[in-house]
Amino acid sequence: MKTVFFDVDTQVDFLYPAGALYVAGAEALLPSLVRLRDWAAVRGIPIISSVDAHAEDDEEFQRWPPHCVVGTAGQRKPPETLLEPCVVIPPVLGKYGVGQARQIIVEKQSLDVFSNPNLRWILDEIGAERCVVYGVVTEYCVRAAALGLLNTGRRVELVTDAVRGLDRRAEKQALEEIVHAGGKLTTVEEVVNENRAGGH
After folding, report:
1. CATH of the domain at 36
2. What is the total count of domains within the chain?
3. Helix (H, G, I), strand (E, B) or coil at 174
4. Which of 10, 69, 129, 187: CA 20 to 30 A from 18?
5. Is 131 within 8 Å of 184 (Cβ atoms)?
6. Domain that holds residue 148
7. CB of 40 closer than 8 Å to CB of 6
C-alpha cells in the first residue's frame, strides 16, 4: 500500500508565537514534524504539504486576521518541514510536473486543500493509497483535508500528537468526526514503528 505523508499548513504564521494567526502550543510540534519528515526521507515516502497562499485582500480575512499572505515571512514553511527536491503547485488547474519531487507543496486560498483543483490528479499520479495526516489547525484545515481524503476512498490516519487545534472541544469533535467517517487515529511513534517494520 503506497503511503503518503500529508502535512497540513505547517507555516510560520501558525506555528510561532510571533505569527499572525498563531495556534497556541504549535511550536511544540516541531520535533514531531522533523521526525515525520526525516522518516519520509529515509523511506522514500512522498510528502504532500498544503499551504495557505493568500492575497492581501483575501475574502477569508473577513473572518480571520490577515495571515499567510504570499511573499511574507509568515507564509513560508519552516526549514524543519521542508524536503528537497520539492515542487509548488498553484491553485490553478494545470498539468504541473511532480516528477521526482519528494515534497509537493499544494497552495490554497481557502480552508479546504481540495479547493486546489490539482490535488486529485496529484494523488492519482503518485499512487497515494494511505495518507498519514498531521499539522494545523485540527478542527479546520486538518479536518477538511482528512475528510476530503476519506471521500476519495483513501485510507486516512491522523497523527494525534502532531496536530494542534484552537479549541479543545472543537478539536475533539473533529477527531470524532474523522473516525466516524472511517479515519484512524495514530501517533508519531506508531507511524515510525510501523515504517521501521516495513509496513506500508
Report:
1. 3.40.50.850
2. 1
3. helix
4. 187
5. no
6. 3-196
7. no
Whether this prediction's pTM lies above 0.90 is answered by: yes
Cα 36 to Cα 109, 137, 148, 191, distances in angstroms: 25, 18, 22, 8
C-alpha–C-alpha distance, residues 183 and 6, integer Å: 14
Query: Which residue type is seen at 71?
Result: G
Q: Residue with C-alpha cell 475574502?
A: 59
Nearest-angstrom CA–CA distance, 48 and 98: 11
pLDDT digits (tens, 9 = 90+) for 188-200: 999 999 745 444 4
Neighbouring C-alpha atoms within 13 Å toward the C-beta of 24: 3
Contact 165, 197 (CB under 8 A): no
Q: What does the longest C-alpha to C-alpha distance in the chain come to?
A: 48
Residues in the chain: 200
Sign (positive/negative) of CA torsion 35, 161, 184, 4? negative
Mean pLDDT of the chain: 94
Contact 94, 118 (CB under 8 A): yes
